[in-house]
Protein backbone atom coordinates (compact mmCIF):
# COMPACT_ATOMS: atom_id res chain seq x y z
CA UNK A 1 0.00 0.00 0.00
CA UNK A 2 2.89 2.33 0.73
CA UNK A 3 4.37 1.64 -2.72
CA UNK A 4 1.00 2.24 -4.37
CA UNK A 5 0.56 5.51 -2.49
CA UNK A 6 4.03 6.62 -3.54
CA UNK A 7 3.28 5.81 -7.17
CA UNK A 8 0.00 7.73 -6.94
CA UNK A 9 1.80 10.74 -5.49
CA UNK A 10 4.38 10.64 -8.30
CA UNK A 11 1.67 10.54 -10.98
CA UNK A 12 -0.22 13.36 -9.28
CA UNK A 13 2.94 15.48 -9.19
CA UNK A 14 3.57 14.83 -12.88
CA UNK A 15 -0.05 15.74 -13.65
CA UNK A 16 0.27 19.08 -11.89
CA UNK A 17 3.60 19.89 -13.51
CA UNK A 18 2.15 19.24 -16.97
CA UNK A 19 -1.01 21.21 -16.20
CA UNK A 20 0.62 24.34 -14.82
CA UNK A 21 3.88 24.49 -16.79
CA UNK A 22 2.96 22.96 -20.16
CA UNK A 23 -0.78 23.62 -20.42
CA UNK A 24 -1.00 26.84 -18.38
CA UNK A 25 -3.88 25.67 -16.20
CA UNK A 26 -4.03 29.05 -14.48
CA UNK A 27 -5.42 30.50 -17.72
CA UNK A 28 -8.37 28.11 -17.67
CA UNK A 29 -9.56 25.80 -20.42
CA UNK A 30 -9.12 22.07 -20.84
CA UNK A 31 -6.02 20.70 -19.11
CA UNK A 32 -4.91 17.39 -17.73
CA UNK A 33 -6.45 18.45 -14.41
CA UNK A 34 -10.01 18.27 -15.72
CA UNK A 35 -9.64 15.84 -18.62
CA UNK A 36 -10.87 12.49 -17.35
CA UNK A 37 -9.79 10.63 -20.52
CA UNK A 38 -6.06 11.27 -20.05
CA UNK A 39 -3.90 8.20 -19.21
CA UNK A 40 -2.35 9.90 -16.17
CA UNK A 41 -5.83 10.45 -14.75
CA UNK A 42 -7.13 6.91 -15.10
CA UNK A 43 -3.79 5.46 -13.94
CA UNK A 44 -4.25 7.35 -10.68
CA UNK A 45 -7.84 6.13 -10.45
CA UNK A 46 -6.64 2.54 -10.95
CA UNK A 47 -4.16 2.90 -8.09
CA UNK A 48 -6.83 4.42 -5.84
CA UNK A 49 -9.22 1.55 -6.56
CA UNK A 50 -6.54 -1.08 -5.84
CA UNK A 51 -5.50 0.69 -2.64
CA UNK A 52 -9.10 0.93 -1.47
CA UNK A 53 -9.74 -2.78 -2.09
CA UNK A 54 -6.52 -3.73 -0.28
CA UNK A 55 -7.48 -1.60 2.73
CA UNK A 56 -10.93 -3.15 2.86
CA UNK A 57 -9.42 -6.62 2.60
CA UNK A 58 -7.10 -5.95 5.55
CA UNK A 59 -9.99 -4.75 7.71
CA UNK A 60 -11.98 -7.83 6.67
CA UNK A 61 -9.02 -10.08 7.53
CA UNK A 62 -8.72 -8.53 11.00
CA UNK A 63 -12.40 -9.25 11.57
CA UNK A 64 -11.88 -12.86 10.49
CA UNK A 65 -8.93 -13.33 12.88
CA UNK A 66 -10.60 -11.73 15.93
CA UNK A 67 -13.77 -13.75 15.45
CA UNK A 68 -11.98 -17.08 15.51
CA UNK A 69 -11.54 -17.38 11.74
CA UNK A 70 -15.27 -17.60 11.21
CA UNK A 71 -16.20 -17.23 7.54
CA UNK A 72 -19.84 -16.58 8.38
CA UNK A 73 -18.90 -13.40 10.22
CA UNK A 74 -16.99 -11.93 7.26
CA UNK A 75 -19.52 -12.91 4.59
CA UNK A 76 -21.16 -9.41 4.40
CA UNK A 77 -17.92 -7.38 4.07
CA UNK A 78 -16.47 -9.98 1.68
CA UNK A 79 -19.48 -9.62 -0.62
CA UNK A 80 -19.08 -5.82 -0.45
CA UNK A 81 -15.42 -6.13 -1.45
CA UNK A 82 -16.35 -8.33 -4.43
CA UNK A 83 -18.98 -5.79 -5.46
CA UNK A 84 -16.45 -3.00 -4.99
CA UNK A 85 -14.04 -4.84 -7.29
CA UNK A 86 -16.71 -4.96 -10.00
CA UNK A 87 -17.52 -1.26 -9.53
CA UNK A 88 -13.80 -0.47 -9.62
CA UNK A 89 -13.51 -2.11 -13.03
CA UNK A 90 -16.51 -0.06 -14.16
CA UNK A 91 -14.92 3.18 -12.92
CA UNK A 92 -11.62 2.49 -14.66
CA UNK A 93 -13.34 1.50 -17.91
CA UNK A 94 -15.48 4.66 -17.85
CA UNK A 95 -12.34 6.80 -17.52
CA UNK A 96 -10.46 4.95 -20.26
CA UNK A 97 -13.22 5.29 -22.88
CA UNK A 98 -14.01 8.91 -22.03
CA UNK A 99 -13.70 11.26 -25.03
CA UNK A 100 -11.44 14.33 -24.68
CA UNK A 101 -13.04 17.18 -22.80
CA UNK A 102 -15.63 15.00 -21.09
CA UNK A 103 -16.94 16.52 -17.85
CA UNK A 104 -15.08 15.57 -14.70
CA UNK A 105 -16.89 13.56 -13.64
CA UNK A 106 -19.38 12.29 -16.22
CA UNK A 107 -22.71 10.78 -15.03
CA UNK A 108 -21.48 7.25 -15.78
CA UNK A 109 -18.36 7.71 -13.66
CA UNK A 110 -20.40 9.23 -10.82
CA UNK A 111 -22.64 6.15 -10.81
CA UNK A 112 -19.71 3.75 -10.59
CA UNK A 113 -18.04 5.91 -7.93
CA UNK A 114 -21.24 5.95 -5.90
CA UNK A 115 -21.37 2.16 -6.08
CA UNK A 116 -17.82 1.54 -4.92
CA UNK A 117 -18.05 4.26 -2.24
CA UNK A 118 -21.27 2.82 -0.82
CA UNK A 119 -19.94 -0.73 -0.77
CA UNK A 120 -16.61 0.18 0.83
CA UNK A 121 -18.38 2.26 3.49
CA UNK A 122 -20.74 -0.61 4.31
CA UNK A 123 -17.84 -3.07 4.49
CA UNK A 124 -15.84 -0.79 6.78
CA UNK A 125 -18.71 0.10 9.07
CA UNK A 126 -19.59 -3.58 9.47
CA UNK A 127 -15.97 -4.62 10.08
CA UNK A 128 -15.32 -1.76 12.50
CA UNK A 129 -18.46 -2.59 14.47
CA UNK A 130 -17.52 -6.28 14.66
CA UNK A 131 -13.89 -5.58 15.62
CA UNK A 132 -14.89 -2.89 18.13
CA UNK A 133 -17.31 -5.20 19.88
CA UNK A 134 -14.78 -8.04 20.00
CA UNK A 135 -11.98 -5.76 21.20
CA UNK A 136 -14.20 -4.20 23.87
CA UNK A 137 -15.37 -7.64 25.02
CA UNK A 138 -11.82 -9.02 25.31
CA UNK A 139 -10.40 -5.94 27.04
CA UNK A 140 -13.32 -5.77 29.47
CA UNK A 141 -13.01 -9.48 30.27
CA UNK A 142 -9.29 -9.17 30.98
CA UNK A 143 -9.89 -6.17 33.21
CA UNK A 144 -12.47 -8.05 35.26
CA UNK A 145 -10.23 -11.09 35.59
CA UNK A 146 -7.31 -9.00 36.79
CA UNK A 147 -9.60 -6.91 39.00
CA UNK A 148 -7.54 -3.87 38.05
CA UNK A 149 -10.17 -1.31 37.31
CA UNK A 150 -8.86 2.23 37.56
CA UNK A 151 -10.47 5.64 37.32
CA UNK A 152 -9.23 6.18 33.79
CA UNK A 153 -9.71 2.58 32.62
CA UNK A 154 -12.98 3.40 30.85
CA UNK A 155 -11.36 6.03 28.64
CA UNK A 156 -8.42 3.76 27.92
CA UNK A 157 -10.80 1.01 26.86
CA UNK A 158 -12.52 3.34 24.41
CA UNK A 159 -9.19 4.55 23.01
CA UNK A 160 -7.80 1.03 22.56
CA UNK A 161 -11.04 -0.12 20.95
CA UNK A 162 -11.01 2.83 18.54
CA UNK A 163 -7.42 2.15 17.48
CA UNK A 164 -7.71 -1.64 17.34
CA UNK A 165 -10.82 -1.57 15.19
CA UNK A 166 -9.31 0.59 12.45
CA UNK A 167 -12.08 3.13 12.94
CA UNK A 168 -9.69 5.99 12.16
CA UNK A 169 -9.41 4.81 8.55
CA UNK A 170 -13.13 4.16 8.24
CA UNK A 171 -14.14 7.53 9.68
CA UNK A 172 -11.71 9.27 7.31
CA UNK A 173 -13.10 7.30 4.37
CA UNK A 174 -16.73 8.09 5.17
CA UNK A 175 -15.87 11.78 5.69
CA UNK A 176 -14.11 11.87 2.31
CA UNK A 177 -17.09 10.32 0.52
CA UNK A 178 -19.57 12.68 2.21
CA UNK A 179 -17.52 15.78 1.47
CA UNK A 180 -16.74 14.88 -2.14
CA UNK A 181 -18.09 17.22 -4.79
CA UNK A 182 -18.20 16.63 -8.52
CA UNK A 183 -15.77 19.06 -10.22
CA UNK A 184 -16.97 20.87 -13.30
CA UNK A 185 -15.69 20.32 -16.78
CA UNK A 186 -13.62 23.06 -18.36
CA UNK A 187 -16.68 24.19 -20.31
CA UNK A 188 -18.76 24.46 -17.17
CA UNK A 189 -16.03 26.44 -15.43
CA UNK A 190 -16.23 29.00 -18.21
CA UNK A 191 -20.04 28.96 -18.14
CA UNK A 192 -21.15 28.32 -14.52
CA UNK A 193 -24.80 28.33 -15.41
CA UNK A 194 -24.41 25.59 -17.98
CA UNK A 195 -24.44 22.09 -16.53
CA UNK A 196 -24.52 18.89 -18.55
CA UNK A 197 -28.16 17.86 -18.64
CA UNK A 198 -27.95 14.66 -20.65
CA UNK A 199 -25.53 12.26 -22.29
CA UNK A 200 -24.84 11.26 -25.88
CA UNK A 201 -27.82 9.84 -27.74
CA UNK A 202 -27.38 6.05 -27.90
CA UNK A 203 -28.31 5.99 -31.61
CA UNK A 204 -26.05 8.86 -32.69
CA UNK A 205 -23.82 8.02 -35.63
CA UNK A 206 -21.51 9.73 -38.14
CA UNK A 207 -22.22 9.77 -41.85
CA UNK A 208 -21.36 11.74 -44.96
CA UNK A 209 -23.82 14.58 -45.56
CA UNK A 210 -26.39 14.26 -48.33
CA UNK A 211 -27.64 17.02 -50.65
CA UNK A 212 -30.90 17.11 -48.70
CA UNK A 213 -28.90 17.97 -45.54
CA UNK A 214 -27.77 21.34 -46.94
CA UNK A 215 -30.24 23.46 -44.97
CA UNK A 216 -29.76 21.52 -41.73
CA UNK A 217 -25.97 21.68 -42.01
CA UNK A 218 -26.11 25.43 -42.62
CA UNK A 219 -28.41 25.87 -39.64
CA UNK A 220 -26.06 24.01 -37.28
CA UNK A 221 -23.05 25.99 -38.52
CA UNK A 222 -24.90 29.29 -38.13
CA UNK A 223 -26.08 28.55 -34.60
CA UNK A 224 -22.67 27.27 -33.52
CA UNK A 225 -20.78 30.29 -34.93
CA UNK A 226 -23.29 32.96 -33.90
CA UNK A 227 -20.95 34.20 -31.14
CA UNK A 228 -17.62 33.23 -32.68
CA UNK A 229 -15.09 36.12 -32.66
CA UNK A 230 -13.76 35.34 -36.14
CA UNK A 231 -17.22 35.33 -37.71
CA UNK A 232 -18.13 38.52 -35.86
CA UNK A 233 -15.00 40.19 -37.22
CA UNK A 234 -15.61 38.98 -40.78
CA UNK A 235 -19.20 40.21 -40.72
CA UNK A 236 -18.51 43.57 -39.07
CA UNK A 237 -20.95 42.70 -36.27
CA UNK A 238 -21.63 45.61 -33.91
CA UNK A 239 -23.47 43.70 -31.19
CA UNK A 240 -22.93 40.22 -29.78
CA UNK A 241 -25.85 37.87 -30.45
CA UNK A 242 -27.51 37.28 -27.10
CA UNK A 243 -30.10 34.58 -27.79
CA UNK A 244 -29.83 32.39 -30.88
CA UNK A 245 -33.27 30.88 -30.29
CA UNK A 246 -35.12 34.19 -29.96
CA UNK A 247 -32.88 36.78 -31.61
CA UNK A 248 -33.66 40.47 -31.74
CA UNK A 249 -34.07 42.06 -35.19
CA UNK A 250 -30.42 43.13 -35.16
CA UNK A 251 -29.25 39.69 -34.06
CA UNK A 252 -31.49 38.00 -36.63
CA UNK A 253 -29.89 40.10 -39.37
CA UNK A 254 -26.40 39.13 -38.17
CA UNK A 255 -27.38 35.45 -38.14
CA UNK A 256 -28.93 35.71 -41.60
CA UNK A 257 -25.72 37.18 -43.03
CA UNK A 258 -23.72 34.50 -41.24
CA UNK A 259 -25.97 31.76 -42.64
CA UNK A 260 -25.28 32.99 -46.19
CA UNK A 261 -21.56 32.66 -45.57
CA UNK A 262 -21.88 29.21 -43.99
CA UNK A 263 -24.11 27.96 -46.81
CA UNK A 264 -21.59 29.18 -49.39
CA UNK A 265 -18.73 27.57 -47.47
CA UNK A 266 -20.51 24.20 -47.41
CA UNK A 267 -21.25 24.37 -51.15
CA UNK A 268 -17.70 25.46 -51.91
CA UNK A 269 -16.30 22.56 -49.86
CA UNK A 270 -18.30 20.08 -51.93
CA UNK A 271 -17.46 21.77 -55.24
CA UNK A 272 -13.72 21.34 -54.63
CA UNK A 273 -14.23 17.65 -53.67
CA UNK A 274 -14.08 18.25 -49.94
CA UNK A 275 -15.85 16.11 -47.35
CA UNK A 276 -18.83 17.14 -45.21
CA UNK A 277 -19.65 14.78 -42.34
CA UNK A 278 -22.44 15.03 -39.80
CA UNK A 279 -23.64 13.41 -36.59
CA UNK A 280 -27.27 12.37 -36.94
CA UNK A 281 -29.71 11.30 -34.23
CA UNK A 282 -33.36 10.19 -34.41
CA UNK A 283 -35.67 13.17 -34.66
CA UNK A 284 -37.74 13.84 -31.53
CA UNK A 285 -39.73 16.89 -32.67
CA UNK A 286 -40.74 16.93 -36.31
CA UNK A 287 -42.45 20.30 -35.92
CA UNK A 288 -39.46 22.21 -34.60
CA UNK A 289 -38.79 25.39 -36.56
CA UNK A 290 -35.34 26.92 -37.00
CA UNK A 291 -34.81 30.27 -35.30
CA UNK A 292 -35.22 33.52 -37.16
CA UNK A 293 -32.36 34.57 -39.38
CA UNK A 294 -31.29 31.06 -40.43
CA UNK A 295 -31.79 29.16 -43.64
CA UNK A 296 -34.90 26.97 -43.62
CA UNK A 297 -35.19 23.57 -45.20
CA UNK A 298 -35.92 19.91 -44.61
CA UNK A 299 -33.73 17.43 -42.73
CA UNK A 300 -33.94 13.74 -43.37
CA UNK A 301 -37.53 13.07 -42.11
CA UNK A 302 -36.54 10.77 -39.27
CA UNK A 303 -33.17 12.33 -38.34
CA UNK A 304 -31.78 15.51 -36.84
CA UNK A 305 -28.32 16.87 -37.67
CA UNK A 306 -26.58 17.87 -34.43
CA UNK A 307 -22.91 18.26 -35.45
CA UNK A 308 -20.99 19.09 -38.63
CA UNK A 309 -17.41 18.96 -39.89
CA UNK A 310 -15.90 20.22 -43.15
CA UNK A 311 -12.65 18.74 -44.50
CA UNK A 312 -10.47 19.63 -47.49
CA UNK A 313 -8.26 16.75 -48.74
CA UNK A 314 -4.60 17.18 -49.77
CA UNK A 315 -4.13 19.26 -52.89
CA UNK A 316 -7.50 21.02 -52.52
CA UNK A 317 -7.95 24.65 -51.51
CA UNK A 318 -10.68 27.27 -51.54
CA UNK A 319 -8.68 29.31 -54.05
CA UNK A 320 -11.14 28.84 -56.93
CA UNK A 321 -12.18 30.51 -60.17
CA UNK A 322 -15.13 32.84 -60.78
CA UNK A 323 -17.42 30.07 -62.04
CA UNK A 324 -17.02 28.08 -58.81
CA UNK A 325 -17.46 31.24 -56.76
CA UNK A 326 -20.74 31.91 -58.54
CA UNK A 327 -21.98 28.32 -58.09
CA UNK A 328 -21.16 28.36 -54.37
CA UNK A 329 -23.24 31.45 -53.68
CA UNK A 330 -20.34 33.48 -52.32
CA UNK A 331 -21.55 36.53 -54.23
CA UNK A 332 -24.59 36.54 -51.96
CA UNK A 333 -22.27 37.06 -48.99
CA UNK A 334 -21.34 40.45 -50.44
CA UNK A 335 -24.89 41.69 -49.89
CA UNK A 336 -24.67 40.78 -46.22
CA UNK A 337 -21.09 41.47 -45.19
CA UNK A 338 -20.20 43.95 -47.89
CA UNK A 339 -16.77 44.56 -49.38
CA UNK A 340 -15.26 45.00 -45.91
CA UNK A 341 -16.16 41.44 -44.92
CA UNK A 342 -14.68 39.97 -48.10
CA UNK A 343 -11.55 42.07 -47.61
CA UNK A 344 -11.09 40.79 -44.04
CA UNK A 345 -11.41 37.16 -45.13
CA UNK A 346 -9.39 37.26 -48.35
CA UNK A 347 -6.77 39.93 -47.73
CA UNK A 348 -6.19 39.95 -43.96
CA UNK A 349 -7.01 36.52 -42.57
CA UNK A 350 -6.12 34.09 -45.39
CA UNK A 351 -2.63 35.45 -46.27
CA UNK A 352 -1.55 35.46 -42.61
CA UNK A 353 -2.68 31.86 -42.14
CA UNK A 354 -0.99 30.71 -45.35
CA UNK A 355 2.31 32.31 -44.33
CA UNK A 356 2.20 30.52 -40.98
CA UNK A 357 1.43 27.17 -42.61
CA UNK A 358 4.13 27.52 -45.24
CA UNK A 359 6.68 28.34 -42.56
CA UNK A 360 5.66 25.54 -40.19
CA UNK A 361 5.46 22.87 -42.90
CA UNK A 362 8.82 23.91 -44.32
CA UNK A 363 10.36 23.64 -40.85
CA UNK A 364 9.03 20.08 -40.62
CA UNK A 365 10.28 19.19 -44.08
CA UNK A 366 6.72 18.66 -45.33
CA UNK A 367 4.68 19.96 -48.23
CA UNK A 368 1.83 22.25 -47.26
CA UNK A 369 -0.52 20.89 -49.95
CA UNK A 370 0.11 17.31 -48.81
CA UNK A 371 -2.05 17.88 -45.74
CA UNK A 372 -5.73 17.87 -44.86
CA UNK A 373 -7.45 21.09 -43.83
CA UNK A 374 -10.09 20.80 -41.13
CA UNK A 375 -12.18 23.84 -42.00
CA UNK A 376 -14.52 23.44 -39.07
CA UNK A 377 -16.06 21.01 -36.61
CA UNK A 378 -19.05 22.26 -34.61
CA UNK A 379 -21.93 21.00 -32.49
CA UNK A 380 -25.33 22.65 -32.27
CA UNK A 381 -25.48 24.62 -28.97
CA UNK A 382 -28.50 22.56 -27.84
CA UNK A 383 -26.47 19.34 -28.14
CA UNK A 384 -23.04 20.32 -26.84
CA UNK A 385 -21.06 18.49 -24.12
CA UNK A 386 -22.23 15.08 -25.30
CA UNK A 387 -19.14 13.92 -27.18
CA UNK A 388 -20.44 14.55 -30.71
CA UNK A 389 -17.37 16.54 -31.78
CA UNK A 390 -15.19 13.63 -30.66
CA UNK A 391 -17.23 11.31 -32.87
CA UNK A 392 -16.54 13.54 -35.87
CA UNK A 393 -12.83 13.83 -35.09
CA UNK A 394 -12.38 10.08 -34.63
CA UNK A 395 -14.13 9.40 -37.93
CA UNK A 396 -12.10 12.13 -39.59
CA UNK A 397 -8.77 10.70 -38.42
CA UNK A 398 -9.63 7.39 -40.10
CA UNK A 399 -9.77 9.32 -43.36
CA UNK A 400 -6.78 11.62 -42.89
CA UNK A 401 -4.19 9.23 -41.42
CA UNK A 402 -1.27 9.25 -41.94
CA UNK A 403 -1.38 12.69 -43.61
CA UNK A 404 -0.96 15.86 -41.51
CA UNK A 405 -4.04 17.93 -40.63
CA UNK A 406 -4.09 21.67 -40.01
CA UNK A 407 -6.79 23.99 -38.67
CA UNK A 408 -7.47 27.35 -37.03
CA UNK A 409 -8.80 27.62 -33.45
CA UNK A 410 -10.59 30.82 -32.44
CA UNK A 411 -11.10 30.23 -28.70
CA UNK A 412 -8.85 28.98 -25.88
CA UNK A 413 -11.29 26.14 -25.16
CA UNK A 414 -11.13 24.87 -28.73
CA UNK A 415 -7.36 25.30 -28.76
CA UNK A 416 -7.06 23.07 -25.70
CA UNK A 417 -9.32 20.37 -27.15
CA UNK A 418 -7.28 20.26 -30.35
CA UNK A 419 -4.05 20.16 -28.35
CA UNK A 420 -5.39 17.15 -26.48
CA UNK A 421 -6.01 15.46 -29.85
CA UNK A 422 -2.38 15.94 -30.86
CA UNK A 423 -2.45 19.28 -32.69
CA UNK A 424 0.57 21.53 -32.17
CA UNK A 425 0.46 25.33 -32.20
CA UNK A 426 2.35 26.72 -35.20
CA UNK A 427 1.67 30.40 -34.59
CA UNK A 428 -0.79 32.73 -32.87
CA UNK A 429 -2.25 35.71 -34.72
CA UNK A 430 -4.11 38.64 -33.20
CA UNK A 431 -6.67 39.70 -35.79
CA UNK A 432 -8.72 42.88 -35.79
CA UNK A 433 -6.43 44.90 -33.52
CA UNK A 434 -7.75 48.45 -33.39
CA UNK A 435 -11.02 47.32 -34.95
CA UNK A 436 -12.74 44.81 -32.64
CA UNK A 437 -12.70 43.55 -29.06
CA UNK A 438 -11.92 40.01 -27.87
CA UNK A 439 -15.35 38.83 -29.06
CA UNK A 440 -14.83 40.20 -32.56
CA UNK A 441 -17.34 43.02 -31.98
CA UNK A 442 -16.54 46.49 -33.32
CA UNK A 443 -14.75 48.57 -30.71
CA UNK A 444 -12.52 51.60 -30.30
CA UNK A 445 -9.66 52.65 -28.07
CA UNK A 446 -8.35 50.28 -25.41
CA UNK A 447 -11.23 47.85 -25.94
CA UNK A 448 -10.15 47.19 -29.54
CA UNK A 449 -7.66 44.48 -28.59
CA UNK A 450 -8.58 42.14 -31.42
CA UNK A 451 -9.02 38.42 -30.90
CA UNK A 452 -6.45 35.57 -30.99
CA UNK A 453 -6.46 32.75 -33.51
CA UNK A 454 -4.22 29.70 -33.21
CA UNK A 455 -2.82 28.01 -36.32
CA UNK A 456 -2.40 24.33 -35.41
CA UNK A 457 -1.15 21.20 -37.15
CA UNK A 458 -1.36 17.51 -36.31
CA UNK A 459 1.54 15.51 -37.71
CA UNK A 460 1.84 12.47 -35.44
CA UNK A 461 -0.85 9.87 -34.80
CA UNK A 462 -0.59 7.81 -31.58
CA UNK A 463 -0.51 4.04 -32.09
CA UNK A 464 -4.07 3.74 -30.77
CA UNK A 465 -5.29 6.21 -33.40
CA UNK A 466 -3.30 4.47 -36.14
CA UNK A 467 -5.03 1.20 -35.28
CA UNK A 468 -8.42 2.85 -35.71
CA UNK A 469 -7.28 4.63 -38.88
CA UNK A 470 -6.43 1.32 -40.57
CA UNK A 471 -10.14 0.59 -40.81
CA UNK A 472 -11.99 1.14 -44.08
CA UNK A 473 -11.99 4.82 -45.07
CA UNK A 474 -15.44 6.21 -45.86
CA UNK A 475 -15.97 7.36 -49.42
CA UNK A 476 -16.11 11.03 -50.34
CA UNK A 477 -19.61 12.44 -50.72
CA UNK A 478 -21.29 12.84 -54.07
CA UNK A 479 -23.17 16.08 -53.52
CA UNK A 480 -24.59 17.90 -56.50
CA UNK A 481 -25.09 21.60 -56.04
TrEMBL record:
SUPFAM superfamilies: Acyl-CoA N-acyltransferases (Nat). Gene3D superfamilies: 3.40.630.30. Keywords: Membrane, Transmembrane, Transmembrane helix. The chain crosses the membrane at residues 78-97, 109-136, 157-177. InterPro entries: Acyl_CoA_acyltransferase, Trichothecene_AcTrans. This is Uncharacterized protein. It comes from Lentinus brumalis. The lineage of its organism: Eukaryota, Fungi, Dikarya, Basidiomycota, Agaricomycotina.
